[in-house]
Amino acid sequence: MKIEPQLLKFFSQVAQHGSFSRAAAYLNVDKSAVSRAVAKLEQQLGMRLLYRNTRALRLTDAGEMVCFEAKKIAESLDVLEHYAETYNGEITGVLRVSCSSGFGRAVLLPAIDVFLRSHPKLEVQLEFEDRFTDLVAENIDVALRHAHLLPDSTLVARLLCESPRVLAAAPAYLARAKALDSPVDLVAHACLAYGKKTLRLDKWQFDIGSEHIETLIRPHVTVNDAEALVQLAVRGLGIVLLDRFLLESDMARGALVEVLPQYRPSPGFSIYAVYPARKWLPRKTTAFIEFVDKYLGKV
Description:
Layout: H1 5-17, H2 20-27, H3 31-45, E1 50-52, E2 57-59, H4 61-87, E3 93-99, H5 101-118, E4 122-128, E5 142-147, E6 155-161, E7 165-169, H6 171-176, E8 191-196, E9 199-200, E10 203-208, E11 211-216, E12 219-223, H7 226-234, E13 239-243, H8 244-252, E14 257-258, E15 264-265, E16 270-276, H9 283-298
GO molecular function: DNA binding; DNA-binding transcription factor activity
Family: Belongs to the LysR transcriptional regulatory family.
Keywords: DNA-binding, Transcription, Transcription regulation
């Protein structure tokens, strides 16, 4: 009996994900290719491996035994692919990266331009999503995420950098608004806050020397998109407290100016590179993480 190893790899992913669709997404192939591979494996083995219905898949007793061995073979195939990639001179293939839309447009797009000059044969697929993506189910190689603490999971999180925040407003707004001498004065100002159904960032915190100040603002506008907040601030609608990387370009051209610079806003969310835990990382993923780490250190 001759069994094709690639069929076992496809079958092990179906068993792991419990779905032809999710396995196909992970393998980056069509769902029909996965279905054909499993059917062909069942034909070669002469046994049924899966019970199928419209709601779920379930392994047969024979499928459980085959799955145990298939996982080991699939891991060996991945290791061999890794060896081949390691000893091949150039980094090739497809790198799938997920991050928030604000960070992606302000920081990642310029960074990708620099990165691809060093790796011209690599294809990068970017997904800008303001949510925590399921990296395994959606076949993401690495995500750049903002968080104080990441939830426990099967993912690995590497801290890249802290993200300082800035209090800023348009010169036109400051020219017509009341005097602003300390954070407590913010309650009398039009403030622009990030918020959505389950979260509203309306407690703004600052430090000056050893003193810590917390101000509960009354938002003039609440938006669930950081870039929209920047645009509202540029139009003179009020004051924003956001990560510096979101504001730097508008501050550089004078559209926004820093407010109360003597008060240091409490740190924003840290930036992490997050990726699925595995025995090894593909060269493309390692190269990207190392590059972003150095790039953010220079920004």
